[in-house]
Amino acid sequence: MEPIKELVIPFEKPSAKQVQKAFRKVKKLKAPDFDALDLRDYSYIGFDDAGSQKKYLLYYDRQNKLQGIVGQMSPNTIKNVCSICNHIGNVALFLSTTKATAEGTYTKKGNYICTDSHQCNCQLHELENMHQFMEKTKA
């Protein structure tokens, strides 16, 4: 498996400024230590803020631009299909708040995703599902 892993294109390590730009509205962002992660295992990086039950998803879109989505992660875990990797596992409802067309209104969009982002990345075989989820949730 190691010889194959050497051929994998890793998740491009973002700078602290890029991460802040991806999550503009978040004041005190605690990004993970990217040096401690084997970025070849990741198509997106998901990290949690346990105090506020928020989950941060950091990914590169189809144009290879770094994007970020912040959402509320439900504390209730169920066994179901993840919208990102399409595998059955422990999932929770992820809801992101987006601006609606009318001024001053907001819409919550989301779906069930794996509670363990690393496991989700390991199960992710096609990026299309991930891109579809991110586009629907961010739009």
UniProtKB/TrEMBL annotation:
InterPro entries: EF-G-binding_C. CDD domains: FusC_FusB. Residues 24-130 form the Elongation factor G-binding protein C-terminal treble-clef zinc-finger domain. This is Elongation factor G-binding protein C-terminal treble-clef zinc-finger domain-containing protein.
